[in-house]
Structure formats: C-alpha cells, structure tokens
Amino acid sequence: MKVNGTPTRTIWRAEDGAGVEIIDQTKLPHAFVTTRLETLDDAARAIKDMLVRGAPLIGATAAYGMALAMRADSSDEALTAAHDQLYATRPTAVNLRWALADMKRVLSPLSPSQRENAAWLRAAELCDEDVAINEAIGDHGLDLFGEAWEKKGKTGTLNALTHCNAGWLATVDWGTALAPIYKAHDAGLPVHVWVDETRPRSQGASLTAWELNQHGVPHTVIVDNVGGHLMQHGMVDLCIVGTDRTTAAGDVCNKIGTYLKALAAHDNGVPFYVALPSPTIDWSIKDGLKDIPIEERSGEEVSVITGRTESGEVVSVTITPEGSPCGNWGFDVTPARYVTALVTERGVCRATEEGLKSLFPDVAGNAAAE
C-alpha cells in the first residue's frame, strides 16, 4: 500500500543488510516513524511492546528476529534460545508459532555457517508469501462485497463495519479484513467503513482510520458500543474482521469486543465475515473457548490514553481514578456459529471443520499426521 503516495510495507530488510526496519505503530496516527531493529532483543521488544502488531506481521517480525539472532550467533544453542525468546512474546496469535516453527525447520538441518544467509532468505520469502496471501483474500472478499452491492440493488452506499485493525499495518501488505475493502473501493464500489475505535489501544481509531485516509476510502470512526445501534437501524450491510487464531472447527479469536459485534450482527441478520490467512488456522485445537490462551495486558492501557493537543504536542493522560484497578483482556473468542463465512486465500468457506478442510485438505491432513 502507499504512505503519502509512496509504496510501503510494514517491515523490510535495511539497505545495509545488517538490520530490519519497521513502522513504529505506537507513534501512529500522530507521526509516521520508522525504527531499526538490529538484535534479537530488538525484535522481541518490538513484538511485545506492539511496535508491530497483527498476527501476520508478528510472524514476519519473528522470522526476521531469527535472522538477526543468527547474524550474532548461529550455534544450535543460539537457535533454540532465539526461538524460545520470540515465542514467549505474545501468547495468542498462532502466526508467531507458525513462523518460528518454519524458520527452525529450515535452519536446524544446516551447518552454523549456512544459517544466517538462509534465515534472511526465508524471512524475506515469508513476507512475500504473506503479501500474496492477503491480496488473494482481497480478491475473494471482493466477491462478497459485490454480492452485498447486488443485494442492495446497487443504490446508495455499501456500509461495512470492522473492528480493530486488520489492514496492511497488521500484515506485511494489503491486510486481511481491509484487503477486500481496498479491492472494492478500487473497483468503484461506493464503500463506506464504520471504524470501531477498539479500546483500549484504539487500533481502529489510530490505525485503521489512518490507513483508510491514506487510501482515500470513505469512513467514520465510531465508539465501540455504536455498532449494534447501527445494525438495528439498517446502517450496516456487512461486518468483516480479522482473526489472530482460528480453530479447526471455525471458532475465531480476535481483538476484544469482536464477539459482541458478532452477536449484534446475528441478531440483526447482518453477514459477519472473518478474513484469515491459512497460517492463522490452528489445526491442533477445535474448542476456541477452552484451548486458546487469552492475553492479559497491563491495566495502564486502559487507564492511560495518548492524544494530540491543540498545540500539536502528543501527551499521555490518566483517565481513571487513582487507585482503581483495571482489567485488560486483549482478545475474545467468537464461536463458529456466529460467523457467516471465512474468507481465505483459497476462497470462501463455512466456519466449520468441513468447510476449512474443503479448502485446505493438504494442510489439514499434514496437521493431523503431526
């Protein structure tokens, strides 16, 4: 996608070949800042502190983190230690585990002298694969937007609601849930997006809105509790969100608040779509409520908010009473029965084990064998 008209990815190898550069998403939307990662610790910190976020981008950053680790020390012990350190950064997004397993599979059989170069090459390949996957998700999702436009009689505005940020900032490029929106907009459909602010970190208000602005997509930022009201009054034609982990049975784990949107959509007959790249599918589990670990983050994300003053200064302020504790669960699970369909790089399917296996018989079979 583009930033101020310039094609840009969220992560790339530095020109000198010795480091990795990322967009520091904690600075958006008030400043566009890139940051250089030079060590394994830098990569781990970028993931844990959410300079990068979004399941696919977390995986890509972990892959480059392995390359940075091999640059410093390519021994067997260092390979295992790097894997374990990166694995511990974020517990919910399965792409992290998938990318690290892939890197270890490639690097373990090699001699230490071969590992650094192989790590850089494989990390770059994973990034390119992510871009291709997400663009394909956009193509398949475009068909759903076309169907919604036909159903609406090709009149008025096609209103989509999304939660959190599942755009190109959450991936290497294109995004998951926003990829079909970009495709629909570029195809000339009159798309308008309701953007949930997505407290407590406001990834919708800060990141999704910033992306849509950059691409020229009409949108409106709303507080998280408005979605149900809009659906009750016929102001939402479809919902589309991303997911950090999807079970083999079609349950989806996404940013906290997604479940409530799915319930509202179900009650009002609004299609609720989930866009996901196949590495987000965890074939090893079927019960999302029981088996997906839900990350609990610092209460300061709830009690402290950052914004820009009229003078242009970016400041952080506390909005809760002193002494009031804050709970901060980062994700929730939406049972498959509330998901209209899953949108993947191989097509659209029902949110069931049979539906997923119909698109990924090879992947599901390999997972079962393991």
Automatic annotation (TrEMBL):
This entry's Gene Ontology molecular function terms read:
S-methyl-5-thioribose-1-phosphate isomerase activity
Catalytic activity from the UniProt record: 5-(methylsulfanyl)-alpha-D-ribose 1-phosphate = 5-(methylsulfanyl)-D-ribulose 1-phosphate; 5-deoxy-alpha-D-ribose 1-phosphate = 5-deoxy-D-ribulose 1-phosphate
Q: Which domain of life is it from?
A: Bacteria
The pathway is: Amino-acid biosynthesis; L-methionine biosynthesis via salvage pathway; L-methionine from S-methyl-5-thio-alpha-D-ribose 1-phosphate: step 1/6
| Annotated site, Transition state stabilizer, chain positions | C164
Is Acyltransferase tagged as a keyword?
no
Q: What class of enzyme is it?
A: isomerase
Please name the catalytic residues of this protein. D244
Key words, A-Z: Amino-acid biosynthesis, Isomerase, Methionine biosynthesis
**E.C. number(s) listed in UniProt:** 5.3.1.23
Matching InterPro entries: IF-2B-related, IF-M1Pi, IF_2B-like_C, Initiation_fac_2B_a/b/d, M1Pi_N, NagB/RpiA_transferase-like
PANTHER family membership: METHYLTHIORIBOSE-1-PHOSPHATE ISOMERASE
This chain's function reads: Catalyzes the interconversion of methylthioribose-1-phosphate (MTR-1-P) into methylthioribulose-1-phosphate (MTRu-1-P). Also catalyzes the interconversion of 5-deoxyribose 1-phosphate and 5-deoxyribulose 1-phosphate. Part of a bifunctional DHAP-shunt salvage pathway for SAM by-products.
Protein name stated in the entry: Methylthioribose-1-phosphate isomerase
Per the UniProt record, the source organism is Caenispirillum salinarum AK4
